[in-house]
C-alpha cells in the first residue's frame, strides 16, 4: 500500500484515511511515518508577515494539522482501551516487588498485563469514588470540590477546561501505582494534578489550595507530610479529606509496621482525613462496582504545574484529553517502533515529558518499567541491568554525567595510555561513520562486540536502541560521543508543559546532531524577529527569532491565571514560547539557541547566554558534572559554581596540581585542597583549555568555587528535571559569587 492509500494528506484532522483495517495493525505496519517525509518541515507559501517568518508544518502533512490517528481514538482513555483489546496478555507495567519489613526489593521484575491493569483500574476507580462519596469529613455546603464528588456520576460528561471535576493529587516518585492511578482517573473522568516528589511544603500547599483538591494519592513516606501540611495550614487545606496510600498499611498488626501504620491512620483522623491504602480501595471497588465514566475530548485530563525556573509560584497548565491525544499522536508518528519494546520510566512522572512518553508506550502495547522503591542513583543502574529497556528519556545534565563517566574510563583514562589510544580510535571511527548521512548508525562488527558492548552492559544498556534527550539544549558533541560509545540512537526533542511536552523531535541517527528535528504533525510554528537581540529572519543559515506555536497540541489557558494567559498568546492564537530558535534553511529543522530573557550583559556590553557556556564546559571536561555560570552587568568576567566528581578531583589534584594523595584521604580534605587559590587557578586554566575556541574570550570562566554536588534539589536551586533555577541559585550562592568577584580573575597570561 502506498502513502496515499493509507494516510490522509487532505484537510482531515486525522492521520489515517477511513478503512476497515484495525488501528493496531495500522500502527504496527505504517507508523512511524516514513523518515524521508517527517524528518523535515516546510514553509507554507504566502504566510510571511512583517516581522514574522512563514508558518512551518511537517513535510508529511502540510495541508492540515492532525489531532488524532482516527476519529474513534480521540482520548487517552480510548487509546489505552484500544491497546488492551489489541495486546491484552502482553506485559504492561513492570515493577520490583518490595519487602516492606526487610526494606528490600525483589531480585527481578514482575509484570502486570494490559488486561490485568485494565481490570485493576476499574476496581480502583469504583472504590475511589465510593470512599470519597461516603467520606465522613465532606462539607458540601462549604466546598465546591466536595459537591462535585457527590455529583460526579451525574455531571462527568459535561466537564471541560472551564468547568472541571474535583481534582485528585498524585504525589510520589515513579512507580507502577502512579501510572495505575493516572489511568484510573482517566477512566472515570477525574482531573488530576501532581506534586513533585521533592517539592517544598509551600509549593505543595499552593497547588493543593489552588486546585481545592480533596484527595491526595501518595506514597507512605509522604503521608505524614500531607497530614502536617494540613496541620500547618488548617484553613487553606480544610478541603483535603482523604489520602490514598500507594503502599500497604498494616491495620491488623501482622508485621512490625502495624503500630506505626495505625498511628498514621489515627493522626490523619485527628486532622479530619480518611487514610486508606490502595489495596483497601480496590477491595471496596470489588464490592461496590461502578461502570467506567469515559472522558470526552474536552474533559480536562490534568493540570500540570510548570516546574518554574524563576522561583515564583508555578503556573498550572490545563491539558485536555484532546491535547493529550494530540501529544501521543505526535510521538506515534515520529518515534521508532520496536516489537515487544520496553521503556524505562526515569524522569519524574509529575513532569509532562515523562507522562507523554509513558502514554505513547501504553498506546502501542509496550511495557513500562519503574525504578525500585526507595532507589538511589546506584540502584538505578541495577534496575536498568535487570529490566534491560529498549528506550528511555532523560535530560542533558544526566547525559553529560554519562559522557564524563565513559570518557574517564576510555579516551581520558588517567591510568592507561593503551586504553586512551584504543578507545580514541574506536569512538572516533564510529563518529565518522555516523556523520556520513542521516540514518547511519555506524555499526562495526568488531568494535561494537569487543570494545563497546562492555560499556553498554555497565550502564544496563544491553538492549537499548535509542534514548531521547529533552527539557534543555544539549551539546552536539555530547550526542555524537554517546551515540558512538553506547551504540545507540539519540534524537533530541523539544517541547514544554504548554505543548504537552514534545512536539518536535530529531531522528535517532542524525548525521549532524544539534537540531530538534521537524515540527510534528500536530503543531505549526513560526518565528518572531528579535532585532534588538540580533536575531533576524534574513540570517544566512535560516530565520532566527522567538518561537511561536499553534495547533491541537498547544494548551489554551493557565489555571485561574488570566493575566499570564493573556501575556502568552497573541490575537491570532499563537503561543509565545519565550525560546529563541533557528529554522534551518534547507530542511526546516528546529534549533533552540536561546531564551528571550535568558541572557545577561557584562559591563563591557557583551551579551552572554549562560546555558551555552555551561553546556560547552560540561561536554568538554569529563572532570565536571555540574556547572552554574554567572555574570554581572557591573563586572567584566564570568564566574562559576562547579560540581566535580570526588575521584576526578583527586586525580586532578595529584596529576595537575601535584598534591600528595596523603592529603586527600577524606572528602573534606579534597574540597579544601581544590578550593585553594593556587589549585583553582590551575583548574580554571585547564577548563578553559579544554573548551578552547568553542567559546569567545568573554564567555569563559575567570574564577570558580568547587563542591561535589552544588546543584541539588534539597537546595531548591534546580527543578525536579534538573533545570537550573537561576534567580534562586544567584541568591543561594551569593556569598560564594561575591567572594569570587572580590578575589578577582584567576586567569593568567594572554587574553582568553
Automatic annotation (TrEMBL):
GO terms for molecular function: ATP binding; long-chain fatty acid-CoA ligase activity. It comes from the Eukaryota. Keywords: ATP-binding, Nucleotide-binding. One of its GO terms (cellular component) is endoplasmic reticulum. Residues 170-559 form the AMP-dependent synthetase/ligase domain. SUPFAM superfamilies: Acetyl-CoA synthetase-like (SSF56801). InterPro entries: AMP-dep_synth/lig_dom (IPR000873), ANL_N_sf (IPR042099). Gene3D superfamilies: N-terminal domain of ligase-like. This is AMP-dependent synthetase/ligase domain-containing protein. It comes from Debaryomyces fabryi. The lineage of its organism: Eukaryota, Fungi, Dikarya, Ascomycota, Saccharomycotina.
Amino acid at each position: 500500500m502506498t502513502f496515499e492509500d493509507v494516510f490522509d494528506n487532505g484537510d482531515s484532522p486525522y492521520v489515517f484515511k477511513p478503512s476497515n483495517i484495525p488501528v493496531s495493525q495500522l500502527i504496527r505496519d505504517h507508523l512511524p511515518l516514513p523518515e524521508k517525509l517527517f524528518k523535515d518541515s516546510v514553509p507554507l507559501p504566502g504566510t510571511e508577515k512583517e516581522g514574522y517568518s512563514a508558518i512551518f508544518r511537517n513535510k508529511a502533512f502540510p495541508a492540515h494539522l492532525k489531532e488524532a490517528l482516527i476519529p474513534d481514538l480521540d482520548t487517552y482513555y480510548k487509546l489505552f482501551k484500544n491497546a488492551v483489546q489489541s495486546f491484552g496478555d502482553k506485559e504492561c507495567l513492570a515493577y520490583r516487588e518490595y519487602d516492606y519489613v526487610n526494606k528490600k526489593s525483589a531480585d527481578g521484575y514482575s509484570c502486570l498485563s494490559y488486561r490485568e491493569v485494565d481490570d485493576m483500574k476499574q476496581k480502583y476507580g469504583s472504590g475511589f469514588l465510593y470512599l470519597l462519596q461516603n467520606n465522613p469529613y465532606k462539607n458540601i455546603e462549604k466546598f465546591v470540590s466536595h459537591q462535585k464528588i457527590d455529583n460526579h456520576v451525574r455531571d462527568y460528561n459535561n466537564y471541560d477546561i472551564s468547568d472541571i471535576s474535583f481534582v485528585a493529587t498524585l504525589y510520589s516518585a515513579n512507580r507502577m501505582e502512579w501510572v495505575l492511578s493516572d489511568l484510573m482517573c482517566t477512566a472515570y473522568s477525574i482531573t488530576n494534578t501532581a506534586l513533585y516528589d521533592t517539592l517544598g511544603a509551600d509549593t505543595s500547599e499552593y497547588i493543593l489550595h489552588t486546585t481545592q483538591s480533596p484527595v491526595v494519592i501518595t506514597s507512605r513516606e509522604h503521608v505524614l507530610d500531607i497530614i502536617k501540611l494540613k496541620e500547618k495550614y488548617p484553613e487553606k487545606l480544610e478541603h483535603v479529606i482523604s489520602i490514598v496510600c500507594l503502599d500497604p498499611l498494616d491495620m491488623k498488626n501482622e508485621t512490625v509496621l502495624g503500630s506505626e501504620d495505625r498511628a498514621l491512620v489515627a493522626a490523619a483522623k485527628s486532622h479530619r482525613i480518611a487514610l486508606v491504602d490502595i489495596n483497601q480501595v480496590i477491595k471496596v471497588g470489588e464490592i461496590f462496582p461502578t461502570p467506567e465514566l469515559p472522558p470526552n475530548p474536552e474533559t480536562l485530563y490534568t493540570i500540570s504545574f510548570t516546574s518554574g525556573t524563576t522561583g515564583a509560584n508555578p503556573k498550572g497548565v490545563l491539558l485536555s484529553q484532546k491535547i493529550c491525544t494530540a501529544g501521543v499522536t505526535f510521538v506515534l508518528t515520529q518515534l521508532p517502533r520496536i516489537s515487544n519494546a520496553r521503556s524505562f520510566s526515569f524522569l519524574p512522572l509529575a513532569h509532562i515529558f515523562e507522562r507523554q512518553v509513558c502514554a505513547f508506550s501504553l498506546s502501542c502495547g509496550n511495557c513500562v518499567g519503574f525504578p525500585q522503591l526507595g532507589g538511589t542513583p546506584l540502584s538505578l543502574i541495577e534496575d536498568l541491568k535487570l529490566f534491560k529497556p529498549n528506550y528511555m528519556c532523560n535530560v542533558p545534565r544526566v547525559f553529560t554525567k554519562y559522557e564524563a563517566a565513559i570518557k574517564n574510563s576510555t579516551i581520558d583514562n588517567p591510568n592507561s595510555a593503551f586504553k586512551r589510544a584504543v578507545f580514541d580510535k574506536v569512538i572516533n571511527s564510529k563518529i565518522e561513520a555516523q556523520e556520513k548521512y542521516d540514518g547511519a548508525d555506524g555499526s562495526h562488527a568488531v568494535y561494537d562486540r569487543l570494545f563497546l558492548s562492555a560499556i553498554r552492559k555497565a550502564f544496563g544498556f544491553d538492549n537499548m536502541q535509542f534514548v531521547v534527550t529533552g527539557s534543555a539544549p544539549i551539546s552536539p558533541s555530547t550526542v555524537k560521543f554517546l551515540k558512538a560509545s553506547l551504540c545507540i540512537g539519540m534524537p533530541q526533542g523539544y517541547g514544554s508543559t504548554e505543548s504537552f511536552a514534545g512536539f518536535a523531535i530529531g531522528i535517532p541517527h542524525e548525521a549532524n546532531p544539534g537540531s530538534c528535528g521537524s515540527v510534528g504533525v500536530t503543531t505549526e510554528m513560526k518565528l518572531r524577529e528579535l532585532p534588538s537581540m540580533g536575531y533576524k529572519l534574513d540570517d544566512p543559515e535560516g530565520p532566527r527569532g522567538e518561537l511561536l506555536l499553534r495547533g491541537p497540541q498547544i494548551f489554551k489557558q493557565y489555571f485561574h491565571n488570566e493575566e499570564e494567559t493573556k501575556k502568552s498568546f497573541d490575537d491570532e492564537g499563537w503561543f509565545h514560547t519565550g525560546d529563541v530558535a533557528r529554522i534551518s534553511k534547507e530542511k526546516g529543522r528546529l534549533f533552540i539557541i536561546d531564551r528571550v530573557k535568558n541572557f545577561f550583559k557584562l559591563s563591557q556590553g557583551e551579551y552572554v547566554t549562560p546555558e551555552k557556556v555551561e553546556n560547552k564546559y560540561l561536554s568538554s571536561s569529563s572532570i565536571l558534572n555540574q556547572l552554574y555560570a554567572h555574570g554581572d552587568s557591573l563586572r567584566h568576567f564570568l564566574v562559576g559554581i562547579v560540581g566535580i566528581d570526588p575521584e576526578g578531583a583527586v586525580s586532578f589534584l595529584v596529576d595537575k596540581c601535584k598534591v600528595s594523595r596523603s592529603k586527600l584521604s577524606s572528602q573534606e580534605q579534597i574540597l579544601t585542597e581544590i578550593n585553594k587559590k593556587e589549585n583553582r587557578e590551575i583548574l580554571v586554566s585547564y577548563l578553559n583549555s579544554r573548551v578552547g575556541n568553542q567559546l569567545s574570550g568573554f564567555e569563559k570562566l575567570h574564577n570558580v568555587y568547587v563542591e561535589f554536588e552544588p546543584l541539588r534539589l534539597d537546595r531548591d536551586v534546580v527543578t525536579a528535571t534538573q533545570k537550573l533555577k537561576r534567580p534562586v541559585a544567584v541568591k543561594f550562592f551569593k556569598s560564594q559569587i561575591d567572594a569570587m568577584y572580590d578575589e578577582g580573575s584567576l586567569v593568567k597570561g594572554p587574553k582568553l
